Amino acid sequence: MEGIIPHIYSETGRLKKVVLGSAALMGSTPTLEECYDAKSYESVQLGIYPQQSDVREEMTQFRDVLESHGVEVFRPTELDELNQVFARDICMAIGDRFIIPNIIEDRAEEVNGIQHVISQIHEDHIIELEEGVYVEGGDVMPWKGYLFVGYSPEDEFNKYKTARTNEKALNRLRSLFPSMKVRGFQLHKHDTDPREGVLHLDCCFQPIGTDQAIIYRGGFKHEADLDFLEHVFGNENLIDVDREEFYYMFPNVFSISTEVIVSNSSFTRLNSELRERGFMVEEIKYDEVSKMGGLLRCSTMPLIRLDQDK
C-alpha cells in the first residue's frame, strides 16, 4: 500500500480526507478534579455536562454534512470510557508531514484510537516530537506560507492545565518547517473560567475563505499580535466576535472549502454575516459538544486538502 501523504497548507482548501472524533463511548460526567479545560469545569459545576447520546447525535450530523460534500471521513477506534471527540489535538498534518506530538497525560490514550489511521500514512512523512515538546492541534494553523501557533512560555505552561503548547514546540516547528513563516501568539489562560481564558488558538481566531478570518481580540495577550493579523488579513477582512460570542465558541467553525463553512446553528449573527460575505453555511446543532471546551474545528483532523496556496 502506497499510504496517505498529508497535504495541509491552509485552513480552507477543498477537504478530501479528515479524521472526525467520536463520542461513542465517552462515558460518564467527570468530576471537577478530572476536568482539564475551563468549559468542561464550568459545565460540571453547573450540572449541564452533556450526555453521550446527545454528543453522538451532533457528531453524526457533522459526519453526514462532510460526506455530502464528498469528504472521506475516518473515525477513531472506540475506546471505553474515553472522550475522543476532539480529534484535532492529538496529532496534526502540516504540509506533507504528520506530526505525533506530546500531549497532556489526561489525553495521551486518545492516540491509541487513531493507530489505524496513522498506519495508513506513508512512514517517511511521520514525525514524532521529542520528549518535552508539547503541542496540540488546536494551537496550530497553516495558512498561505505561514504557520500560526498559539503557545505559552514555560512559566505559564507549567502553571495552567489549559496551556497545551509550549515554547519548545514553537521552536521545533520552526526547525521542521523552515520554508514557512512561523508566528507564535501568546493567549490569555484560565483553568476554570471560560470567559477569561483561551484553551487553543482556534478558540479565538480562525482563517476562512481566501483572505478572511474570525477573531476574538480579547483572547490575545499582546497588541502587536493583533497588529500583525490586521496586516496579514486587512481589518476589513476580520470578522470580530465579542466576549459572549467567544464564550459560545463562534470562531471555532470548520471550512470544507473556501466557499463552504460548517457552523453551529445557534450562531445566528455570525451565520448571517458569513452568508452576506458570500459563504455557503452548513448549519448543524453543536451546542452540547461546546460544553466540553471545543467545537467544530476541534472535532476534526484534516489529512488532505486541495486547491491551496503554499
What does this molecule look like?
This protein has 310 residues and is an alpha/beta fold. The chain has 9 helices and 15 strands. It has helices at residues 38-46, 52-68, 115-118, 154-159, 167-176, 223-233, 243-247, 268-276, 287-290, and strands spanning 14-20, 72-74, 92-94, 97-100, 126-128, 140-143, 146-151, 181-186, 205-208, 212-215, 238-240, 254-255, 260-264, 280-284, 300-306. It has a 3-stranded mixed β-sheet with strand order 2-1-15, with helices on one face. Strand 4 (97-100), helix 3 and strand 5 form a beta-alpha-beta unit. The longest helix is centred in the N-terminal third of the chain and has 17 residues, at 52-68. The model has no long low-confidence stretch (mean pLDDT 96).
* Portion in strands: 15-25%
Major sheet description: 3 strands, mixed
Number of helices: 9
- Outline: globular
Give the C-alpha Rg. 18 Å
Mean pLDDT: 96
- Report the uncertain regions: none
* Alpha-beta classification: alpha/beta
Rounded to the nearest angstrom, the distance between the terminal CA atoms is 27 Å
Estimated helix fraction: 10-25%
Order of helices and strands: EHHEEEHEEEHHEEEHEHEEHEHE
Neighbour order of strands in the largest sheet: 2-1-15
Strand count: 15
